[in-house]
């Protein structure tokens, strides 16, 4: 009788332990999984490491799920991000400044590249110098980095916007507008530069004459940076892994990118684009007095947009730029 009672007590206590253990296990494994980071990017070769990292599985290798959102037109990509359709965007500093002016809940965490000849001013064949642009119509996206680029080129050649007529034209439309004679010059980039040249236009000047003026960056929403810092670090590691892979395997990468984005392989090129390495980023995320520093360049944009009415008030550059994620990748850190 006593033996039977002890067996019953033992069985009862064991059952309680098993139930407790099962409940404990359920609590741990039921934690919801984080959704993929949605990152918007457009047709710009400096953004292509996103495609490589996704297709080669580098994001997964580094421990983060990423859903690239490719939108060919850069203005549409900015609009999509502004509408809250993604967690991050790879785009120009100028576009980020416009976004930040309307919604300060965004921060730059990575410099992807800078235009070093890729952004150009294409002109009709009879225009041979910047002075020949006097009295002409120049197409560029007004209120954006294109206007700053054109204005800077004019100033470097002792001209002002009073010497020309600036016309609001998207980069994709420049070849057709040039061919029709609607404008005599226009700011654009590949593949639209080649389209314009095939139609008889020529490249007059490029960002080779304005080094560091047009940097491209990746910015995340502040809430995502706050809630998912490890995922952001993993994203950046995968970015540099993809960048290194592209440099080591250019032909394979070209084929992969072309297939992923449904473009021609010859449209995949880093000509005129200087990809930003980790060392470049460490310099970019340090305060400075030249375009080598994102802080300095962001101030140029802020002053320009404030002066031209794109921004009502000058933004806080320190809040726009978050150097911590890049600095954590610094060798020895």
TrEMBL record:
Residues 1-21 form the signal peptide. It is found in: Periplasm. The keyword Signal applies. The keyword Translocase does not apply. Keywords: Signal. Its main location: periplasm. Residues 49-252 form the SsuA/THI5-like domain. It comes from the Bacteria. Belongs to the bacterial solute-binding protein SsuA/TauA family. This is ABC transporter substrate-binding protein.
